[in-house]
Amino acid sequence: MRIQYVLQEIGHGLRRNLTMVIAVIVSTAVALTMLGAGLLMLEQTKAMQGYWYGKVEVAVYMCNTNDVGHATNCTSVITAAESAAIYTKLHGTPYVENIIPESQAQAYQHYEQAYGSTALGQTATEQDMEQNFRVKLSDPSKFQVVQDSVGNMVGVASVVDEQQLLQPLFTFIHIAEYSAAGVAAVMLVLAFLLIFNTVRLSAFSRRRETGIMRLVGASNFYIQMPFLLEGAVAGLLGGALASGVLIAIKAFFIDGIVAPHLSSIQFIGWRPFVFIVPLLLVVGIMMSVAASVFTLRKYLRV
Amino acid sequence: MISFENVSKTYPGQERPALRNMSLEIERGEFVFVIGSSGSGKSTFMRLILREERPTTGRVIVAGKDLSRLSNWKLPQHRRLIGTVFQDFRLLPNKTVFQNVAFALEVIGKPKSHLVKVVPEVIDLVGLGGKEDRLPNELSGGEQQRVAVARAFVNRPMVLIADEPTGNLDPETSVGIMKLLDRINRTGTTVVMVTHDQAIVNQMRKRVLELDQGALVRDQARGVYGYVR
Lengths: 302, 229
Ligand SMILES: Nc1ncnc2c1ncn2[C@@H]1O[C@H](COP(=O)(O)OP(=O)(O)OP(=O)(O)O)[C@@H](O)[C@H]1O
Ligand SMILES: [Mg+2]
Hints:
Chain A: Keywords: Cell cycle, Cell division, Cell membrane, Membrane, Transmembrane, Transmembrane helix. Chain A: It is a multi-pass membrane protein. Chain A: Forms a membrane-associated complex with FtsE. Chain A: Part of the ABC transporter FtsEX involved in cellular division. Chain A: Belongs to the ABC-4 integral membrane protein family. FtsX subfamily. The complex is a heterodimer of chains A (about 300) and B (about 230). Chain A has about 300 residues and is of the alpha+beta class. Chain A is about 70% helix and about 10% strand. Chain A has helices at about 5-15, 20-50, 80-90, 105-115, 120-125, 145-150, 160-205, 205-215, 220-260, 270-300, and strands at about 60, 95-100, 130-135, 155-160. Chain A has a four-stranded antiparallel sheet with strand order 2-3-1-4. Chain A is elongated and about 95 Å long. Chain B has a six-stranded mixed sheet, sandwiched between helices. Chain B has a four-stranded antiparallel sheet with strand order 2-1-4-5, with helices on one face. Chain B is about 30% helix and about 25% strand. By secondary structure, chain B is α/β, with parallel strands linked by helices. In chain B, helix 3 (about 95-105) packs across helix 4. The longest helix of chain B is centred in the last third of the chain and has 16 residues, at about 170-185. Magnesium ion binds next to helix 1 of chain B. Adenosine-5'-triphosphate (ATP) binds next to helix 1 of chain B.
């Protein structure tokens, strides 16, 4: 394979159909941006779920120094006897399947995992944490039963339905995820059609060359190579553009504008990009090469 | 070298076969004319040799290989055995004479050192020495056809097939091309040539295959065009 010939052919091919190639790159980029955005939103929900999400439904928080005088049932910091009584009461409550005690130290550790990088996470201390029981229910909808059972006991600062807290936000993110996936699917189809058309035009405008190549016995690989590489380059550029857009959104929109105003939410870091960027590049290349192969099978017959 | 065994070809959607039950043998080094009226199946015959088409029934064997059993990925190898020349030259308009000829070697992966040696030789052989850097539109029709012959021959194929190579040329220029093909034939290359040119056939006195509505109606050694049965 003569590299120079191949590079020259790619250059010619891309320039010949410049407008079509731009259309391919843009639609590929939009498709991949949506795909990447969907994946990032998935990461975002994970980042917000914290340690206990999905493992338990209800948290029974017990009084710490901050609560004394503020919460109705907190006359003093929780004592061992009070917490034992709460535990026993929980144990006898219907639907309670499992009770996991969490100390202030553990609570602090999990809190820092979830919010460490936010303004809240940086000011919190272990003393701000509440000793608590994490309660798993056999029927997740029976929060009220636990609330009624232990909500008024001495030493209980609050009973919180953890699920309920994040649910509306997650529902919103999931809708956004599905919308992104939908747009990605439509754009993928569009990109595929555009590549199909571009390669077809390209094959048509080069039919003289390819006809002679076939006659003198050039291999199929050699004949198709320039077209495939043309597609691969366009796909790669689309993937790079999509990555650039996502990185810009993260850097300027999330970190620059949204995060400073929403100090209680842990936003995704840069780590997901380590796999999402290569993924977008690879998907971009594979998609356009697949579309090219499909087209060439039809329009560049042996 | 080339043998047809009861070959029939009916194109999809056609009722009348383009070739019917054709059997013949062409030996290595032969020069063969294929004649017949328009639509009699001459180009179809050539396309079967190239395996651009497959026979509907029967077998085509070239250089010992049954073409209907040839897999697609071996097809390029088969085509390298055959040089092809057409009525319309089929040169690349934006490439020079040298580049047009070299193209045939480049695309089958021959190294540059090989090209710079053999391409000028072949250009000399076809009588275009000194015109290597001309573009096709700076050449006469006869000269363009010489470039096409050079391109077909540069890889030293075993067979050269020419479908009406003089169809677009005046009689004098045609004679030049004929002499060239004759010279190539003398190097041991089998030449199969489709033509409507009576004068050429009568003058050359080579083997003549005549087709009529897809049937081989005459196979005559040292034949002439206007033979009456
Ligand atoms: N691709 C095709 N599809 C359908 N029919 C075809 C095809 N190619 C040729 N034919 C038909 O097959 C018959 C033989 O055609 P062919 O091209 O072999 O004739 P020919 O002898 O080369 O004619 P000419 O002297 O005009 O070039 C004709 O009737 C033609 O219409
Ligand atoms: Mg013909």
